[in-house]
Amino acid sequence: MKRIGLLLFLALTCAPALWGATRYTNVVSGLFSAGATWAGGVAPSGDGDSFYITNNTTVWYDVDPVLANGWAASAIVGTLAYTNGANGGAKVTLPMNGALSGSGDFLIGTSSDPITNLADAMPPLLMTWKSGNITMTKTGGLMWYGATNSFVDYITNTTSVTANNTNLWFASNVSNVASNDVVYVDAQTVQGQGGSVHVVYSVETNRITLCSVITGNAAVVTNTWYGVVMGTTLAAIKTNGAMVCKLSRPVVYLQPAKITSTGAISASNTNTINGVRFTNLGRGALDARNGCTITSCVGNNSNSGGISYQGTGHTINSCVGNNNNGGISHLGTGHTIMSCVGNNNIGGISYLGTGHTIMSCVGNNSFTGISYQGFGHTIISCVGNNNSGAISYQGFGHTITSCVGNNNGYGGIAYYGTGVTITSCVGNNNSYGGISYYGSQTVVNCFSTNTATYGIAYLPTESTFLCDSSVVVGYYLASGNRAPYDVSVINETNWTSDAGLVVLSNLPATMFSSQVFVHTPSATSLTNKPVSHFQNIFVKPSFTQPISLWLFLTNKIGWSYQAVRAGAKPLSPTYISGTTGWTNIILNITNSVAASAQWRLWVTSYSTNDMYSGWSWFTIPTEASSTFIQ
Fold first, then answer.
1. What is the C-alpha separation between 205 and 172, in angstroms, rounded?
2. What does the pLDDT look like over 142-186, one tens digit per residue?
3. What are the angstrom distances between the C-alpha of 182 and each of 164, 185, 211?
4. What is the mean pLDDT of residues 50-75?
5. Pairing relation of β-strands 494-497 and 488-490?
6. CA nearest neighbour of 564 among 535, 593, 540
7. What stretch of H or E contains 5?
8. Candidates 3.30.70.330, 1.10.10.10, 2.60.120.200, 2.60.40.420; correct CATH number of 500-629?
């Protein structure tokens, strides 16, 4: 008796947290709420209870339990499903306080019958996680279909939205927005962080009427809008053209308090996730997952990506990200991101990452509108509004095409960056460079309007500009900004550096050409600094290409030259000086490989006395031109 009494005492005192909690296992398919579904004839109902769904069975989730903490860690080997009309058409909640694991399926709606909002526009399914997340392992085991109706448009009036009953007007009728929906309203005049979030009071034709701004981390609104922390201390005057973006979705997954380094889904791959709002997560909703298709979802106030953290090969379409590091994606490789919107993020759409394709996206009031850092993204037909850098910040090797940057702080398209190619883009009303602020880019057929400081580029390093000459007049040459041989090319006729300018110009009475390259230092303080230009030379396979170079020598001008591989700098040039007059040098550029190769011939003048200009000239034979080689 003493032994039994001791064991009972230990059982009661060593595991008090488990006292009263039960693990339930189903024996047949059926409703979660039905006792007949479960062994023992009783359904889970107590705080800390857990459930186990057996193989080859389906349990339809249909309860709205009031639990202090939620269900404990549970497992799905068969199928857990949620469909429209569950719980008699009332709200359903899945409160979890532990991982949801197993090798089965977790299904929400179907492709033909996606989950829709309740009659009052409230989300019918709310999933909360106080600890753990979804760690189910089956490939394609998560098929979540919420309705994908969304709304993004621009207002046509100017108004303050600091009070109730504020009207926003649009050019066409409003669709997919209803009373009790939640919308983000862009602060169009604020660069960097801005905007506010509101509950919709009513919708009539082309008008949305708003309630007061939502503030705080857990605003008291009926759709449990956790995690909204916008720039509500900023002036809330919205000008004509400010964006309005619907945030509500019929399925909600949230962490009431962020769980450190924990997203929503961290095991299975190749899932389909539609119409879900992920809020207040400690990491992106898809945590290191691969090959998922995500449509019309929202990520709010999450760390490390509103929708995706790491992972490979997602297709992300028509999603919205607010108040995250990356509005949609943080890190990751090879995602395709289309028609998404990012507001108030560090990277409006993407934060870091490699090789994403980002198309038709919009980034507002973020540190950078579309991409923050990262490598090798292809960015097409995107718009950046009111950001520090409109499209890209500190990226490497991006290709940016047909994008627009409006009202941005540092470069309409690119703020810093290396090896970025920018084509057919437009910058409007930007500060410090209509297209580029700083870095090395190739800028082709771009335009800038109403830029406060310098038309196309503010502080370029080694860049190439092929644009209408009228829009590069404001091109800035900042002494001390660039290293020697950081030379930018404008329309293949001007080569600029800190030390000076090289211009292809007409000079009469030369013995070989009416045009020569004129090297002019930009200041007397730059005596003996290199004033350089270069020409690209294409050499056929296994061939030695002779180039004839002419230099005009004086006792006030010195010269150097060197042929290097494409993109390289002249680290060991040959120096030359002499008495006044033209001198001819024959350079032999040898390509010893069995494929065509590009070289760069550098020619540099040094003014040894005041600001004297030097003259150089050479011609590229037809067989060494890019047209001939290609």
1. 8
2. 999 999 999 999 999 988 776 678 899 999 999 999 988 888 888
3. 14, 10, 10
4. 97
5. antiparallel
6. 535
7. helix 2-14
8. 2.60.120.200
Place of tokens 């929503």: 264
**Measured distance CA(452)–CA(476) in Å, rounded:** 13
* DSSP tally for the chain: helices H, then strands E: 2, 58
Instruction: Give the C-alpha separation, 85 to 264, whole Å.
Output: 25
3-class SS at 404? strand
Matching residue, tokens 């005009």:
552
pLDDT at 576 over 50: yes
Residue 6 is classified by DSSP as H
Residues 6+ positions from 427 with CB-CB distance below 8 Å: 390, 404, 405, 406, 408, 411, 412, 413, 433, 434, 435, 446, 447, 448, 449, 451, 456
394-414: average pLDDT: 91
Average pLDDT score, the chain:
86
> Given the structure tokens 């310098």, which residue do they identify?
454
Sheet holding 50-53, edge to edge: 23-25, 50-53, 74-76, 100-101
- Can you give the pLDDT at residue 120? 82
d(CA 544, CA 474): 41
The answer, yes or no, to whether residue 453 has pLDDT greater than 70, is: no
- CA angle 417–191–453, rounded 5-degree value: 65
Q: Three-state SS across 38-90?
A: EHHHCCCCCCCCEEEECCCCEEECCCCCCCCCCECCEEECCEEEECCCHHHHC
Q: How far is 555 from 331, CA to CA, in rounded Å?
A: 57
Q: In sequence order, what DSSP letters do the residues of 284-313 get, joined into one string?
A: -SEES-BS-EEES-EEES-SS-SSEES-B-
pLDDT for the residue 629: 39
Global pTM reads 0.88
